[in-house]
Amino acid sequence: MGDTAPGFGSPVREPLAPVTGLEHWTNKGDVRLFLWEKFVGEPTGKRGTIPFVHGSSMASTPTFDLQVPGRPDLSVMDVFARAGYDCWCIDNEGYGRSSKHRDITCDISTGADDLLAAADTSRRRDGPGRCSSTGSRPGR
Predict the structure, then answer these.
(1) What is the DSSP string of 49-116?
(2) How far does CA 64 lie from the centroid of its chain?
(3) Which of 4, 8, 125, 138 falls 20 to 30 Å from 48 in CA-CA distance?
């Protein structure tokens, strides 16, 4: 009976490590870009950094850090943070909490400039290190 909840017959789950989330902002000219970082413990000295990049349909936080009460496994950022990575997501220009004041086409070139600004922000704080990336494709 030691591996089940008393009287319920379901497995007892070990408590999940708490994940810290920090809000960051960076600039790309006159454009403010929102960055969201998640990690367990301290953000430095991790296995690597993972930037999560959204596509053209939705901002980054609801895509990669979905929070639903009772479902701690829905946030891919939390899963990778608990695996020892420093996780960042960015709202590209025109999305989420980032600036929306310019009349732009949200194309790959604009997104690449946004990612460069986000990577510079992460590197200024943490220094150079291993980096993997994941994202959702832009468009159909």
Answers:
(1) EEEEE--SSS-HHHHH---BTTBTTS-HHHHHHHTT-EEEEEE-TTSTTS---S-----HHHHHHHHH
(2) 6
(3) 138
- Using alpha carbons, select from 20, 44, 42, 52 the residue that is nearest to residue 128: 44
**What are the beta bridge partners of residue 34?**
25, 91
Is the pLDDT at 125 greater than 70, yes or no? Answer: yes
pLDDT surpasses 70 at 10: no
Burial 99-124, CB ≥16 within 10 A → b, else e? beeeeeebeeebbebbbebbbebbee
d(CA 7, CA 1): 9
Q: How far apart are CA 78 and CA 23, in angstroms?
A: 15
Per-residue pLDDT averaged across 6-11, rounded? 57
The residue written with tokens 């993972």 in the block is 50
Cα 49 from Cα 60, distance rounded (Å)? 16
Q: Is 13 helix (H, G, I), strand (E, B) or coil?
A: coil
